[in-house]
Design goal:
Oligomer: heterodimer
Largest sheet of chain A: 4 strands, parallel
Radius of gyration of chain A: 18 Å
Shape of chain B: globular
Order of helices and strands of chain A: HHHEHHEHHEHEEHE
Number of domains of chain B: 3
Distance between the termini of chain A: 30 Å
Largest interface: A-B, 12 and 18 residues
Bound molecules: zinc ion
């Protein structure tokens, strides 16, 4: 097997433990060098609202603004910073549409999903246009075979993708989602999963719907921040 | 979209678009992939991938092989309009006024005849023969007939170098340059200059296709190149392969009679290629680790410098530069030099320094840019038998010597730990062309 990102040969590492345990092997899908290009965020040194890396454990300015606007803020975690390697990865996975690359972060993402112990794991959906063009929801791809509750869908066809908008435009976007079943949400701990946290606008829109449907708690997670 | 953008091409169309607007003739809507059991075949690059690897959700598939050209998926369709050859020919077609040598003249006539008959031919011309100018007449006549043409090369730098020369030679013709490094807007033109990779976007477009430096990285011995050129050329079109070092794939085509071959064994100044001298140095790598170079190499380097000639010394790996550099500093203290490799940030400055005469020699791992020639130099390779040097690279390296009329010869020496197929093949190719050259001179 070769590295999904640079095509270098991956060493097959088998230790006695793997053989004796007879457990399915968690084979790496990218090489050490490519792995080292990504910058992991330590949750203990991150903003508790949006997951951005910082020294102190207080809300950052942006999260203070959300707190001010809604009277509450998200509890978001991100696995990695949105550095050049991550940008390139997202370019190839999402925009070029190389669906094989979905596997790169699946193991870590599933691990963090388990740690966050939610009743319902809700992926952020893509528009029908994106689905017809790209052929996949990048968030579902990243999550892999973990159980999810696809409770959100897009209201209508959105003409401009978020990535083509400026920060200001993004913050002014109206509610794009519909919650398809509010009854199952009642009293549940919800985990929202997205690929990238940029301004937070998308996740706040989603979170508002779940708050209205009286979930008990809401946390969120993304691969990049 | 302007209809002309579909002429002779297969343009990828997203699902929402082809479902919304049913295109009218002459636009043809073509499928992008076909499935054969557990394999899915991409109709753009011709390669097959296991369905398991190429799968998207909902039983859709995509091609991971040529994804860098924009993803081909079962969600897409191709729009295609058969090539209409909608060109207005303005005279004079050829605006180049240079002169060909009698030998170049002969090759130019062969090329022209082959292009007129839409033959598949190989022009095997030695390094420094002046291949580009020899294509001009054939191209001019084809353009005057209203044909659509492409000049392609596996290497971007070759395309970048060819484009302005072709622009200057055919000032009254529409040209377009296509390569992956920058996304210039495509437009319909009579003469396309592109990387061989870009040929995959065309479909039965060209009446004649010329492929320069066929054997250069990264397409060497690759069926993908043959597939791409077969797709891009019209069914009754012609194809001209130009090379200084035909690889086994092309030579096989020649032997089977699929490809007519003509030779240009003499350089533009009418001289033979410098002969390759082999020097056996079985323990050179161990010696290098202990801090010395083969004595025969050092004395050869001294001899060149004493005779007033500068040289290029090639070594196999970037790591070798750091070892060989200090040794030469001690051994040849009065001679300014530098080391350079492909990814060296100061590469251009160093090459310019060599051109300006700032250095007596360069120690390098790469052939440097095409078109970079230093007059009157000698050329040496340490470890020519190491796998990084392909036989075609060795022929190109040897061809760096004897480029100028002021010194049409030069010394070429390879130091090797042992005999190998690549070195033998390079020596054989040079000797073969020189035999042909000698026969012409007689
Ligand atoms: Zn890698
Ligand atoms: Zn924050
Ligand atoms: Zn393909």
């Amino acid at each position: 097997m070769n590295c999904l990102l640079c095509n270098a040969r991956l060493p097959v590492r088998l230790n006695l433990g793997d053989l004796l345990m007879l457990r399915p092997l968690e084979r790496p899908v990218i090489c050490e060098q490519c792995r080292a290009g990504f910058d992991r965020i330590n949750p203990d040194h991150a903003c508790p609202g949006c997951g951005r890396p910082q020294e102190h454990p207080h809300l950052c300015c942006e999260c203070e603004q959300w707190q001010h606007q809604y009277g509450w803020h998200l509890n978001h975690q991100a696995l990695y910073t949105y550095n050049d390697a991550m940008k390139e990865y997202m370019q190839r996975y999402k925009f070029l549409g190389d669906y094989r690359l979905r596997q790169v972060f699946t193991v870590e993402l599933q691990q963090r999903i388990r740690q966050l112990q939610a009743d319902l794991v809700v992926p952020i959906p893509v528009t029908t246009t994106t689905m017809a063009t790209r052929g996949f929801n990048q968030v579902l791809g990243l999550i892999g075979d973990a159980t999810v509750a696809p409770l959100l869908r897009h209201r209508a066809v959105d003409k401009t993708a978020q990535s083509h908008k400026s920060r200001r435009q993004r913050l002014q976007t109206p509610q794009p989602f519909i919650l398809s079943d509010s009854a199952v949400v009642h009293g549940k701990r919800i985990l929202l999963v997205d690929d990238i946290y940029t301004t937070g606008r998308t996740l706040y829109h989603a979170a508002i719907l779940f708050k209205k449907a009286q979930c008990s708690e809401i946390v969120s997670l993304s691969v990049a921040r | 979209m302007d209809l002309s953008e579909y002429y002779g091409r297969r343009v990828l169309i997203d699902q929402p678009e082809w479902r919304r607007a049913k295109p009218a003739p002459p636009i043809e809507v073509l499928p992008t992939m076909t499935r054969h059991g557990q394999m899915i075949r991409c109709l753009r690059c011709g390669q097959e991938t296991a369905c398991r690897v190429a799968a998207l959700p909902n039983d859709e598939f995509y091609c991971p092989r040529c994804i860098n050209l924009g993803r081909v998926a079962t969600l897409n369709k191709f729009y295609h309009v058969p090539e209409p050859n909608q060109f207005t020919v303005t005279s004079p077609v050829l605006t180049w006024t240079g002169q060909l040598s009698p030998l170049q003249e002969e090759a130019a006539t062969t090329v022209d005849a082959g292009m007129t008959a839409h033959r598949h031919q190989l022009l095997w011309a030695v390094t420094g023969a002046g291949k580009t100018e020899m294509m001009f007449r054939g191209i001019a006549h084809a353009l005057a007939r209203g044909e659509r043409l492409a000049v392609a090369s596996p290497r971007v730098d070759v395309c970048l170098e060819l484009y302005p020369r072709l622009q200057a030679a055919f000032q009254n013709t529409s040209l377009v340059l296509l390569h992956g490094r920058q996304e210039l807007p495509y437009h319909y033109a009579q003469l396309t200059v592109c990387t061989t990779h870009q040929l995959l976007r065309f479909y039965h477009a060209f009446d004649n296709l010329i492929i320069d430096e066929v054997d250069a990285f990264p397409f060497a011995a690759n069926d993908a190149l043959l597939f791409a050129s077969r797709q891009a050329v019209k069914k009754a079109g012609g194809c001209l392969y130009l090379t200084a070092t035909p690889g086994p794939a092309l030579l096989r085509q020649v032997r089977r009679g699929h490809l007519a071959v003509s030779y240009l064994p003499l350089r533009y100044h009418g001289h033979l290629l410098p002969r390759i001298h082999l020097h056996l140095a079985p323990g050179w790598r161990r010696g290098l680790q202990r801090g010395h170079l083969p004595a025969s190499l050092l004395s050869q380097l001294r001899r060149s410098l004493d005779n007033g000639y500068r040289f290029l010394l090639f070594v196999p790996h970037v790591a070798d530069l750091a070892v060989v550099g200090p040794i030469l500093q001690t051994a040849l203290p009065r001679h300014p030099f530098t080391t350079v490799h492909a990814a060296d940030p100061d590469r251009l400055t160093k090459v310019q320094g060599m051109r300006d005469g700032k250095y007596d020699f360069l120690v390098t791992t790469t052939i440097l840019e095409r078109g970079v020639t230093f007059p009157e130099i000698d050329v040496f390779v340490l470890g020519a038998d190491e796998p990084v040097f392909s036989s075609s690279a060795l022929v190109q390296i040897a061809g760096r010597a004897g480029r100028s009329l002021s010194r049409p010869t030069g010394t070429v020496g390879f130091w090797i730990a042992g005999q190998c197929r690549r070195v033998r093949s390079a020596v054989r190719q040079v000797n073969f062309m020189n035999r042909k050259g000698r026969a012409l001179k007689r």
